[in-house]
Amino acid sequence: MSEYPESPSAARRPMILTAILALVLTGCTGAPPAPEQSSAAVVRYKTDLEDFSRNLLDLGAGAVLIEARINGDVWSHAVGVRSVGSPDPAEVTDPTHIASVTKSMVAVSVLKLVEEGLVQFKDPVAKHLPEFDSLVKPPGPVTVEHLLRHESGLPSYEQALYTSRPMRQALTQSISPAEGLALATTMPWVLAPGSGSDYSNSNHLVLGLLLERLRGQPVAEILRNEVFEPLGMVSTHLMSTGTVPPTMVHGHVVVDGERLDSAYFGGMMGNAAGGVVSTVADVNTFYAALLGGQLLKPATVREMQQAPFGFFGMGLMRWVDVCGGFYYGHGGEGAGYRTMALNSADGARQVTIAITHPPESWDPADFDPVNPFGGEALMRAARTALDLSC
Q1: Are strands 276-278 and 237-238 parallel, antiparallel or unpaired?
Q2: DSSP H helical segments within 116-262, as ranges?
Q3: Which of 69, 191, 259, 365 counts the most CB atoms within 10 A of its CB?
């Protein structure tokens, strides 16, 4: 959420991660074995993640970056190169696109508005954005909470984006939130607001507009002032015009038979649904601070973690934790990039994995649901590591 404008897979029903979550939460894979609690388990999770990264590299991944913070132990690992054909080795400190992990960060800033009394969860969006109803024509009132939990039913805009213009243009040209929402209105609403959950990037386009309206600043400045700078996340920013960070890992996609460098595609400039560039360490720092109560009040974090329809909290996804309760975090899928951040409820056990995958077609007709570089593979690797570390 994904994400970069979403991949073709997400455009068909915005997140493969929805299916992953259903599989995990319903227990279709069977109960996991009791976790090991020994030094051997520590060695095993590190070995498993190293093997996972080398396997992806053998299959053609450009780079794999991992940082785990487990019960006070910090371990990191990087393999591959910064860009296909480059001799420069990838470093674990290299910035990468985190795509829809952005949503957790934007949700924090929206929830700060709630804590300050400027917004209420049950407020109709049109109370703060009077143009909202006329722009998207919802079948019923859409609230701020609906947007945060993906319960609005507002279609995800990228399917219309990819079919309304050439793929190269869709990926490389900037698109404003209003333009994205106008594209969303060309598709039927997915569900009545509040009647269920369906992942949509359009929700966070609206939340970005809400933030800018009430704060009087661009989303990039809001995130920098409220999240990144207070936590010392010096390698994190919301994409904007400018030069690519010199140590950034570069993803690639294939469009019309040509390989394109996707490091700074225009489609994600300022995008509140998936435009943040960060490092695996900064992502772990963010979630540790969030779950530890440094960014929001404990009661707000608990509300954020609630998922009435099973999968989506407020800017968070959740998975069953074999050690008890749930893991929280988010996945991200962008053009040339994948990210998965998984955290225990108290933030004491964390794994973030980021990869650049082999150049692949971004044409929906070429979508292959069986993908060793997809979100499911990253989720399973991260979850296996944390399951060993109770």
Answers
A1: antiparallel
A2: 125-128, 132-136, 144-148, 158-164, 167-172, 177-184, 201-215, 219-223
A3: 69
Nearest to 65 by CA among 274, 249, 289: 249
User: Sign of torsion, CA 94 98 101 107?
Assistant: positive
Mean pLDDT within 64-92 = 96
Distance separating alpha carbons of residues 297 and 282, to the nearest angstrom: 21
Q: Are the C-beta atoms of 182 and 29 separated by less than 8 Å?
A: no
Sign of CA dihedral 215, 217, 223, 227: negative
Residue type, 116: E
- Pick the residue with more confidence: 179 or 3? 179
Token code pair at residue 77 = 């690992």
- Sequence-distant (≥ 6) Cβ neighbours of residue 375 within 8 angstroms: 15, 16, 17, 20, 331, 333, 338, 340
Residue reference for tokens 């010392």: 232
Q: Identify the residue whose tokens are 């520590």.
A: 42
Q: How far apart are CA 314 and CA 8, in angstroms?
A: 25
Q: How far is it between the farthest Cα atoms of the chain?
A: 60
What does residue 354 show for φ and ψ, rounded to 5 degrees?
A: -130, 140
- Which pLDDT belongs to residue 372? 83
- Sorting pLDDT into bands at 50, 70 and 90, what band is 361? confident
**Pairing mode, strands 237-238 and 63-70:** unpaired
Q: What is the mean pLDDT of residues 361-382?
A: 82
What is the C-alpha to C-alpha distance for residues 331 and 313, in angstroms, rounded to an integer? Answer: 13
What pLDDT score was predicted for residue 19? 41
Count other Cβ atoms within 10 Å, centred on residue 146.
25
Residue 234 DSSP SS3: coil
Alpha-carbon span 317 to 306, nearest angstrom: 10
Length of the chain: 390
Determine the straight-line distance between the first and last CA of the chain, rounded to whole angstroms. 29
Q: What is the pLDDT of residues 310-332, one digit of tens each?
A: 889 999 999 999 999 999 999 99
Q: Can you tell me the distance from the alpha carbon of 45 to that of 11, in angstroms, rounded to the nearest whole number? A: 34
Residue that has been written with the tokens 């949700």 in this structure: 107
